[in-house]
Amino acid sequence: MFEAATGASGCGLIFGGAPGIGKSRLLRSVTENLDPGRYALVAVTGTAATAGLALASLAPALPGDLVVSPQNGVGPNAVASHAGLVRWALDALHRLAAGRPIVLAVDDTHLLDPLSAALVHHLARTRQATVIGTIRTGVPTPEPVRALWIDDLVDRVDLGPLSAGDTADLLQAVLGGPVEARSVDRLWRLTTGNALLLRELVTAARTSGDLVEACGIWRWTGRFALTPTLTDVVDHRIGPLEPAVRDVLELVAFGAPLGLPLLVKATDSAAAEQAEERGLITVTRDDRRTTVRLAHPLYGEVVRQRCPLTRARRLQADLAHLIEATGARRDDDVLRIAAWRVDSDTGTDPRRLLKAVRQAFRLHRLPLAARLSRAALADGGGGFQAAEVLATVLFLTDRPGEALAVLDAQSGSSLRWRCLRGVVAYWGHFDTTAPDALADGRRAHARPVEQSWTRALESLMRLHHGEPRAARQLAGEVLDDPASPPGPRALARTAMAHLLAAGGAPARARAMVEPTGNPYLGLAAELAHGTALLIAGDVAGIDKLVGTDDGDGFAVRSGYRAVLAAQAARLRGQLAAAGQLAAEACALLADGRVYAGLAHAERAHVAALCGDADLARSAMADADARRVPAMAVLDPWFEQARAWVVVAGGDQAGGVTILRRLAERLGNDGFHGHELLALLDLVRLGAAGDVARRLQWLAAYSDNQLAETVTWYADAMARRDGPALLTAMERFQRLGMNLYAAEAAAVAVSLLRAVRSAAAGGAAEELANLLAGCPGARTPALRVRQPALTNREREIALLAAGGVASKEIAERLFLSSRTVDNHLMRVYAKLGVSGRTELATALRALPDLAERLPSEA
C-alpha cells in the first residue's frame, strides 16, 4: 500500500471490506509513514452528516475562505458554480502541495458528497494526485467513486475477515502471551474475524475480569459485560431500529434458530423482510425448513443483555407457546421450551422438565442441565432425579462442596444416593475412605443390583487409588456375573480397560472402552482410552481423540485432552507446541485438582527435555502441590517427569535412579505398559544393558508395536550397533515418535563415525532432518560425539559448506589449494561423508557448528 501511495506502483489503491475489518487502520499506517518533505498529504473522511453539502468532505483540507476572482468566473457576491468550486479546490490543493506530489487519502469514500467524489475522480483521472482510500462493501457508492476502479484509475483490494490463526496471533500480540485454543475459537466465531469487534470484546472481557491468565496462557471464561464502546460499535452496525424491526431482532436473539413461518406469525412479515434486507438476520433453507438466525453472533449477545427483563420474559414465554403450538417436533425443542419456561417463570410440566434435564445432561450441556435441575428442585417436582443431575454437574464443574450440599439436602439412603455421594466424596474431596464405605454398604445390602453397582464403583476407586489387584478382582466379579445391569458393566469395563492399558495390552484395552452418554463415565473411559494410546505410542490416535472436543464448557474433559495433546506433541519432538498445550491444560484446570497436577507434571517434563531446568523444577513443584492420593493412577507420569527434571538439572545418575525405582514398582503392580515407558527412558539415558532382557519379556507379553520397537532399540543400544540403531530410528519414525527417532539417529551417527563407516553421511543427513523437526530438544542422547576436527579443519569445513571454492578458501586463509583439499579430505573421512554435497548436512548435526553455518547452507 505504501508503494501505491507514493506512486511507485503507478496506481492508487482502494481497500474494501466490512466495517471494523481494519481498513482505516491500514490507511493510517500509510499516511503516518509518508515523508511530508517529499509528499503533500491530503487526508479527509467521508461522513453521512455532510454527504449533501458541496465539497464538505474535502473542506478540512481546503482554505477557510473561498477566494473568488473574475478569472475563475465567480463574482465576489455570486454563488460559486460547481465548476468554479472544483477549479478553486484544484488551485488550493496545488498551492498546498507547493510542487510536491499530492497523495489524497480518503477514508469512507462511499460517504463522499457528490462534488468531492467528482473532484477525487478528476484528480485520479488526470494523474494530479495519487488516491488511496477505503470503502465499505455492501453499501451504495457514488458513481465517480465506483469509476475509480472500474476505469482502472486505482487498484481495489477487498479485505476478508481474520482467520482463526490471525485471531490467535493478534490476541497474543495484544495480551502479551498465547491464548488458550478454545478461547481463541470462541472469540473468533463470536466476532466473525472482525478486528474492531475483537478489540472491543477483549476490552470488555478484560474490564469485567473474564479474561484471565494462568501459567502464561490467557483464557476467556465466555462471559463479558457490555461497555459503552462495545455497545456503540454494535449499535452502529445495527443502526436505528423501528419498533417492528426491533421486535424481529429480539425474538430471533432469544429464539434462534427459528423457523421463518413462526417468526412471521409472531411479528410482522414486512419487518422481517426489512431486517433481512438490512443484513440483521439471515434466512437459510435446509430441506423443507426455512431457518432464521441473527446475521452476527454478537448481535444476539448485546440484544439479550440490553433487553428489559419484563420484555425478555414475555418474549421467552411467547417462544415457548409458539413451539408448543407446532407440536415441538425438533430434537432440541424439549430443551428450548424448558429453558424458556424456566426463564420466563411461566411454569412447566414437571415430567417434561425432568426429561429436559436428562437430555441436557446426556448432551453434555452442563450449564443448562444445572439451570433446569435447579428449577425442577425449586418447583418441588424434581425430587432426587433433579438433585442427582445437579450434584453431578456441580461435581464435574469443580464445585464438590455445593454438590454434597445438594445431596445431603435430600437425606437419602438409596443406592444411587450412596453411589453418587461416594463419587463426590472420593474425586471431589479426595476422601480415600470412600471405597471402604462402599464396601461396608455392600455388605449391609445384599441385593444383586446393590452388589453390582458398588463393586463396579469401588473397582474404579481402587484403581485410581493405586490398588490394581483389588480393582481387577472387583471389576472381574461384575463382568463375570450375568445378572449385572448395563450401568455397572460399563463402569467395570472402564476399570478393566484402564488396567489392561496400564498392564501392557493397549489394543485389548481400546476394544473394551465403550462410548457413554454419562459425562463422568465418559471421562473415566477417556482416561482409559488416552492411557492406552500413550502406552501404544499411537500419536495419530491421540490426535483423533483430542480433535473431537466440542468446547461445551466441560473444562475437566477439555483440560485432560489438552494434556493428551501435549504428550503427543512431546513424543513427536514438537516441544514448543507441547509446552504451550501443557500450559493451556494448566489454565483450563486451574480451578480443579483431579488432572491439574498431571498438567503441571507434563509442563515440567517438556521444560526438562528443552533443558530449561529452572522452569522444569518450578513446574514440578506445582505438580507436587496439586498431586492427590485419590489419583495415584497418574503417578507414573509424575515420576517420569521428575526423573527428567533431575536430569535437566545436571544429575543424570539421579534421574536413572528414579526411573529404576519406578520400573520396579510398576512391575510389581503389574503395570507393565507403564513399566515399558520407564525402561525406554532408561535406555535413552544410557542404561540399555541393564534393561534389555526385561524389555524382551515385556515385548512378548505386550500387544502393541511400540514394545517391539523399544526392545529393538534397547538391544541395539546395548550392543552399540549403529546400523541397528538406524533401523530403530525408522521404526520410531513410522510411529510418529520423532524425538526418539532423533535420539537413536544421534547415537548411530557417533558410532558410525567412530568406525569411519560409509553410512555415517546418510545417518547424519537423517539426524539433521529429524533435529529440524525437533527444535529446542536438549536430551543426553542428542549430544552427538563430536569428531576430532582441528580448529583449521573446522574453519575450512564451514567455508566449504557455505559454498566457497577451495581456491578462494586458500586465498582467505593464506594457504595453498592443495593444503585446503587435504584438510577437506580429512574432514570428509572424520564425518563419514563423500564430498561437499553432504558436508553441510553433516555439520548441521553438530550442535556447536550448526549455528555457525551460513544461512544459504
Automatic annotation (TrEMBL):
InterPro entries: AAA_16, P-loop_NTPase, Sig_transdc_resp-reg_C-effctor, Tscrpt_reg_LuxR_C, WalR-like, WH-like_DNA-bd_sf
Domain HTH luxR-type: 782-847
Name of one Pfam family that matches: GerE
GO BP field: regulation of DNA-templated transcription
CDD domains, per database record: LuxR_C_like
PANTHER family reported for this sequence: TWO-COMPONENT RESPONSE REGULATOR
Protein name per its UniProtKB record: LuxR family transcriptional regulator
Organism: Virgisporangium aurantiacum
